[in-house]
Amino acid sequence: MKAFIIRFLQNESGATAIEYGLIATGIAIAIIAAVNGVGSSLSGTFNSISGSLK
Fold this sequence. Notes:
This protein is an all-alpha fold. It has two helices and no strands. It starts with a helix and ends with a helix.
């Protein structure tokens, strides 16, 4: 039983998976923020063009 607990505490494969998950989440949040900013900018540009065409 003691050997099992020691082996369990030394196993880091789960921690690596969690780290990769956190990295993927951070990248996804950065992409969403960038797309949101570009979308707002494009919306303003399209509104300006639409106003010029009327």
